[in-house]
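Fold sample X.
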Amino acid sequence: MRWLKYDACNRQCHMVEVLGCVRFPLVSKTFLSKTVQAEPLIQDNPQCLKMVISGMRYHLLSPEDREDLGESSRPRRKKHDYHIALFGGSQPQSCRYFNPKDSSWTDIRCPFEKRRDATVVFWDNVVYILGGSQLFPIKRMDCYNVLKDSWYSKLGPSTPRDSLAACASQGKIYTSGGSEVGSSALDLFECYDTRTESWQVKASMLMARCSHGSTEANGLIYVCGGTMGNNVSGRVLNNCEVYDPSTQQWRELCGMRESRKNHGLVVVNNRIYAIGGQGAVGGLDSVEYYDIASNEWRAAAPMPWRGLTVKCAAVGDIIYVLAGFQGVGRLGHVLEYHTEGDRWVTCTTVRAFPVTSCLICVVDTCGVNEDEDMDLIDSQTHAAAEAPPPPASLLSASS
């Protein structure tokens, strides 16, 4: 209203359009009747007055009837609220969210023990933890609904294995490679349909590999690096390939500049970044990116830290390295790589995640507190409903 009153002569023509964006049912009935309805600009505009009265009538409806009003009577949803989730086991502070907005950590409740050499992927409000082992290979797939804060289990891949990789695309989770306990790397490629909750074996990769990276870009599934043969002593790869779900075929790509395994692999602005990891002779600080358009790998600024394993994720234009192992110690502080400026920043006041063998993925927590918000609104409207009803003359003014 202040905006309208500032230049009422020129802005009054926009009044209906502006107030049409206000969700009056979410405003308390008392405020609507005593303040909003009493505003002269609204009193003199029948369309705006009708909006206010509709908002007041909302408070007289039953909860069931309120649901029928749709979006106009519910809080607006935020578009996205990205956090980075890390899962390191069932001990306190072993599973946490990292909020890139303020570099803060918060705990995630987790009832399951840590898996060795598992993988994780997020799709449609659910985190899926696949593969890995404890004393024996784990067949089940642990699932965490971030909106409901609930854990449950489903059937995992048909071939339980360690050191596999996974990514999601269009409602399907694709798992690649890995190795069965004590065995060589596999070329196995499987697909889990989250809608039908069923697994299918797809065309095998062109090269068997484990401890590799996998990511989705433009609907295609990319796998890069890893090791062939034995996971401990096998040859480290720079080989890369891509799978097209529409043709169900694999195609070999230009190889990375350096061979690496246990590296980070993320997509930012149509580039696939390979970060750190273990090379043929030890830990790497090197970073390179694959330009999808030109099928070429190019060097980027090296990390200010050298890691045998790198746990990272990207939100926006920034890649966050949140955990890692160096051979004689773990990553101490969070690292940020700003892709636009090709520069690294060490966050000296933000400690890294303490579990170096954790699982990491980006999740969208938008809507996590929606139920609590609605409970608050309902309690407020219930209290307002106990106030005296608006004058009958006001309600009849809309007819």
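Fold sample Y, listed below.
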Amino acid sequence: MTATERTAAPGPGTRPSGGADAAFDACVSMDGGVLTLTVSGRIQPAVLGVLRSAKDGVRAGVRRVRLELSGVPHLDAAAVVFLAEWCERCRELGIPLDLAGLGEHHRHRLALAGMSCAAG
């Protein structure tokens, strides 16, 4: 059984033109115990509440979490906070976390922030 929920929460000054100012969009799906959160656009402080709600929903029945980040053009401080919170939540619950779609610049930014759960 698959469940999907999509949320669009554009922050101030965002527009659907692509690049670092692209409008934010997130899609949460659950399939066979794998929760996938696909994020696109800029992760700004204004949308962290939406992402925290999805993170807080991770509980029994979830065997793996996959964050698909290929649509995120830049990891600023808000994005690093978001990823750190997901890493901590999955660690607390003993659930593997896969970070997918990370470019070299994303991995470098996470390494500078001291995040050990970064993947390719």
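Sample Y note: DSSP finds three helices and five strands in the chain.
Also: The longest strand covers residues 64-71.
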